[in-house]
Amino acid sequence: MPTTALHARRLVEHRYGRALEHLQGEVAQHRCADPLLPIVLRRLTELEQTSEQGRATRRALHSTVQRAVADGSSPDDHLRPHIAELMRLEQQEQSQAEALWDLLDVRLLLDEPAACRLPPSQRPGRAVEDRDVMDVARQAAACLPRLTRDALRLALRERAIHISNRRLGAVLQQLRAERAR
């Protein structure tokens, strides 16, 4: 049965366009350009932990009911703590999920509206001035352990800059020349 945590995980992967494991790797290697990503991942982890605690409490509740039925005793006193804990965990899970969804909405608002208001020729990823590309490429290169064509291409794409292979070669050559100085 799909859970709130599973839906939240799928939403995070959808909003970022990459698998959760890839996103976690970016954060672990300090390669993410999105300042909200570490917070989103931490909130998602907390939500998954709460969801797992809820499942464990449901299992304990189920086994308590089965024991009470087998004994023929009244399960009321034994069930109350499990039910109270389950209600608390479900409320906590719901509030954590809402906080995560709000955070993803904030990220969406920060990313999308500015790009949507620009004319198509000026949207990120389109014709970008050489000096702008170089500024962003310098920032991206500073975060890279090794300056390679593929690493630079990925770092620029993460920053919404898509350039031709020829232009990428020129940028890479200039960055290497600057590093050699």
Tally of individual helices: 7
* N- and C-termini, Cα separation: 59 Å
**Helical proportion, percent range:** over 70%
Q: Tell me the strand percentage band.
A: under 5%
Give the overall shape: rod-shaped
**Integer average pLDDT:** 83
Main pleated-sheet profile? none
Q: Which sequence of SSEs, written as H and E, runs from N to C?
A: HHHHHHH
> Which blocks of ≥5 consecutive residues have pLDDT under 50?
112-127
Radius of gyration: 24 Å
Instruction: Give the class from helix and strand content and strand pairing.
Output: mainly alpha
Structure keywords:
rod-shaped; 2 domains; 0% strand; 181 residues; single chain
Describe this structure in words.
With 181 residues, the protein is mostly helical. It has two domains: 114 residues; 51 residues. Helix 1 packs antiparallel against helix 3 and helix 3 packs antiparallel against helix 4. The longest helix is centred in the middle third of the chain and has 42 residues. It is rod-shaped, with a radius of gyration of 24 Å.
Secondary-structure topology with pairs:
Elements: H1 4-16, H2 20-28, H3 37-71, H4 76-117, H5 130-143, H6 149-158, H7 165-180
How would you briefly describe this protein structure?
The chain is mainly α. It has 2 domains: about 5-115; about 130-180.
